[in-house]
Amino acid sequence: MKKNNYKTLIYLFIILSLSLLPRLWKLEQYPPYVVDEPANLRDIDKIFNLGSYNILDFHWDFSKSQLVYLPALSLIGLLGRQESFLALRLTSSLLSLLALIPFFFIVKSLTNRAISFATTLLLSFSYYYLQFSRVGWNDIIGVTCLGLYLIWFLEIAGRKKSVFWSALGGIVAAIIFYSYRGGAIILAVSPFYLLYVLWAQRASKKVFIKVLASFGTVAILLSLPWAMKISRNWEKYNLRFRVVSIKNASIPYHGLTKREEISKYQVLTSIKSWVFLDAVDGGREENPRYLPLKEPPVNTFVRIGFLLGLLASLVKPKKVAVWLLIYILGIVFGQILTVDPPNGARGLIMLPAIYILFAVGLYKLYEVTGKNKLFLAFLIIISLLYCYLDFSYYQGWMGWIKV
């Protein structure tokens, strides 16, 4: 094994080992029983009671397939039905851990190993990310995890000009299509990202056709059964979408009655929440389940680095264009066009992009210092400190969270 690969594996081992503690800490006690969890458990019990499971059956909110239950069902099979609640939460924990692997490699490709190590740990210990790592909303954390794997696989496919990796990306894309609706943002940008990577690698026309065809063919063929199910049940499938759409918001909305005022409120609140990363209370009982609201969605260190990275990326967007696009589309479709921003559930799809832009900001600072090794050592130390502070804050938040 090459020395560099050996070091990378050590970094990953440390990240995953340290990340276990915050995910297992009083897992069945905190957070308190969240409203989506009993609904998910009822659906899972129904599957067991009927003795049949079909990925073409609707999830209880009709916006996704029951494919999202497959990891939890597997864990329940191992632990026993009496441990269904624990298995549901453990599934989220495992998915959030698995997401750190592609995230680490994506950040490493944009920066270096030390910055990737620090950034991945900061994401792992983020109080916002931890909340979704510890509750039975497997579909939300699941599509975030799958989205990272999709972009990573397509990057490898384009770089290696590989039909195998593009087909693997097609499989992941299809699974995302069956899953949480927010994943549509990643599906929309993924073929363009593959095109960009192939173009950057100066691939021949023949390679372009082979790699793109393998991705598209696998994704479409595997998605067809679910697409046909949706087409036959269009009204059901869009129930959740209509509920959260700003077009269908009850008037008065946050004290506002004019559509122009509501549109302005949506834009300004979303920018304040997700660009400047300010602490904003978006109202309604749903939002405090996802974000502490008393604090910004990320800590001060990440917030500063993110703004630096965002500015740097807007000047030279090429390398991070896919993440800028996911971030912008997340703000538009997940916040501005839906009710009560900042909504943490619909915002989670943007969180990896925020931390990736943070890493880019740190790398720019590293370049300014003349790539000083002391800077990297300081960065790792301060990152570990903020990991501790974020986990401590999360523990405190669980004492007063409103679910």
From TrEMBL:
The keyword Membrane applies. Residues 92-221 form the Oligosaccharyl transferase STT3 N-terminal domain. The keyword Cell membrane applies. It is a multi-pass membrane protein. The chain crosses the membrane at residues 9-25, 86-107, 114-130, 136-155, 162-178, 184-200, 207-228, 298-315, 320-338, 344-363, 375-394. It is found in: Cell membrane. Keywords: Cell membrane, Glycosyltransferase, Membrane, Transferase, Transmembrane, Transmembrane helix. Pfam families: STT3 (PF02516). This is Oligosaccharyl transferase STT3 N-terminal domain-containing protein. InterPro entries: LipidA_mod_glycosyltrf_83, STT3_N.
